[in-house]
Amino acid sequence: MSENTTQQMIITMLAEGNPVWFVAGMVNMRSHDVYMIGRAAGYPDKFKLRRAVWSQQQTQRLAA
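-> structure tokens emitted (64 positions)
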């Protein structure tokens, strides 16, 4: 799994409302690292996270 794919999965899971510690366990990373990735995408604001997920999905559709 590429780094970008992992980051997108983290953002998606946080946007779905999963806690940082849970996401960290699922992707086998430290909670702090997961938090920093989420924070860069707008965490803890779930609206910003969902917008980041939506934007990424739109970009992938255009590239396909």
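Residues 3-63 form one domain.
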